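User: Design a sequence. Structure:
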């Protein structure tokens, strides 16, 4: 009885005070003390808007910090890329990306802030080189359809991957400006006969083992690949993943897809489903290299069901757009996501407990990115600004008493419009019924707008001038 009371008294002591006491006594190293402070729930509960970055003239579809964390890179529907000094709120550089449609992803290469790579709704993948004379952009490669994401090889100033709605994964080396088509992602069986390939929305690289990368999109599976198995002379078929990941109850569900992926520093794989939840997988939760379902459930799926069930994170809504997902904290202690309700949700990674809900946008939050070294978040979405969040609030926030649970709508429109003919027919069908389609990815609002953007993308594909590298990006604002 006495030991139980003692444990209760100990647990009631503010953990931050205990950490300070241990640090003063030398029982806690400076490094561990800093990590515990940065990972404390108190920090999360004091996050508040520090700055609003306002210069874009369209939805901000991508935000990311450079390796040092002193620069934030953003891309938008206005087709511009901006490099920000986020601490002061000043735009250091703004330039035309060279894309002819909405910029979906923009990142600086490691150790080289003057090298920016981008992909966009026009399917192009471009490289912007910043110099004292200005900014020059060039086309590196193209996808048929929108290109949603890039993945930079950790620590490499030259290597990155791209994925697109054509299901193609490409490997790019900036030293030679060469793009290698690794494989096209196909359905694992005939259950999705309407898909000739998997529409890919996300790609991520394991920071602990950069040979491993994962892709996901318009079906229920996340596929893991090992680049070491690729033969650069093209002598082998590299399209077979080394592992698949999927929650057991979603196997065979053709109404779900995946919009976001992230690896933690511990090689845990975070997967965000549309019309569903977010799941955390460890490597031992994989389904193996051949998870083809039988009439009931595949043997690998049954084995996975017997293994530890992936941690789940609930409360947000991911139906309207292609949302990312990320970790937060010095050792990835938290999971962070935007939501259709315009809020940011933060959960404890280990137990899935929702600890914070932050009002961020009036509409939809698509991107929430963590600073690489400190407790700072950047968020963006359908609105034209970017919000920087720091733990500056004097009072701790509390969870809303009720978090509205909205039943997700079926997203067949988003995932079944595979061919141009299908897309045109579905858009006309929706317009003829007097209704607008759901938001298509990062930015769309009504069927007519999506249709016009689609036609623009087709025109861009046939524009020979866009295929030539070395074109200038147009007017830009120089470094201040």
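Assistant: Done.
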């Amino acid at each position: 009885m006495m030991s139980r009371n003692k444990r209760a008294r100990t647990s009631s002591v503010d953990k931050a005070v205990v950490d300070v006491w241990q640090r003063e006594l030398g029982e806690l190293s400076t490094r561990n003390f800093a990590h515990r402070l940065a990972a404390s729930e108190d920090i999360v509960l004091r996050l508040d808007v520090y700055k609003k970055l306002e210069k874009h003239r369209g939805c901000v579809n991508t935000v990311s910090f450079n390796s040092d964390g002193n620069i934030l890179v953003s891309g938008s529907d206005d087709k511009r890329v901006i490099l920000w000094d986020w601490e002061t709120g000043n735009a250091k550089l703004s330039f035309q990306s060279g894309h002819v449609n909405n910029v979906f992803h923009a990142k600086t290469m490691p150790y080289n802030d003057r090298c920016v790579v981008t992909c966009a709704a026009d399917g192009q993948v471009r490289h912007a080189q910043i110099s004292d004379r200005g900014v020059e952009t060039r086309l590196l490669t193209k996808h048929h359809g929108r290109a949603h994401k890039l993945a930079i090889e950790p620590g490499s100033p030259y290597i990155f991957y791209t994925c697109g709605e054509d299901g193609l994964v490409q490997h790019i080396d900036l030293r030679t400006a060469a793009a290698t088509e690794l494989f096209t992602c196909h359905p694992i069986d005939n259950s999705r006969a309407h898909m000739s390939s998997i529409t890919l929305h996300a790609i991520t690289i394991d920071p602990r083992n950069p040979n491993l990368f994962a892709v996901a999109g318009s079906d229920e599976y996340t596929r893991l690949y090992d680049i070491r198995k690729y033969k650069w002379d093209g002598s082998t078929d590299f399209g077979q993943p080394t592992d698949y990941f999927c929650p057991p109850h979603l196997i065979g569900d053709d109404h779900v897809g995946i919009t976001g992926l992230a690896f933690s520093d511990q090689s845990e794989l975070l997967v965000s489903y549309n019309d569903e939840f977010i799941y955390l997988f460890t490597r031992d939760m994989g389904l193996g290299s051949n998870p083809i379902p039988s009439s009931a459930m595949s043997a690998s799926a049954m084995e996975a069901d017997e293994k530890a069930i992936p941690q789940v994170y609930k409360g947000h809504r991911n139906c309207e757009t292609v949302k990312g997902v990320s970790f937060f904290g010095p050792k990835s202690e938290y999971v962070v996501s935007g939501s259709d309700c315009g809020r940011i949700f933060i959960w404890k990674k280990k137990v899935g407990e929702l600890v914070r809900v932050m009002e961020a946008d009036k509409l939809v939050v698509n991107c929430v990115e963590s600073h690489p070294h400190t407790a700072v978040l950047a968020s963006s979405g359908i609105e034209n600004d970017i919000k920087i969040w720091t733990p500056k609030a004097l009072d701790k926030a509390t969870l809303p008493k009720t978090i509205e649970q909205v039943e997700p709508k079926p997203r067949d429109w988003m995932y079944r419009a595979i061919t141009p003919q299908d897309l045109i027919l579905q858009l006309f069908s929706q317009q003829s019924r007097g209704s607008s389609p759901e938001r298509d990815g990062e930015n769309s609002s009504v069927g007519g707008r999506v249709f016009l953007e689609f036609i623009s993308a087709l025109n861009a594909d046939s524009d020979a001038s866009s295929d030539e590298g070395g074109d200038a990006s147009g007017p830009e604002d120089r470094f201040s």
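Helices lie at 2-12, 15-24, 30-38, 41-45, 299-306, 412-416, 420-432, 447-461. Residues 447-461 form the longest helix (15 residues).
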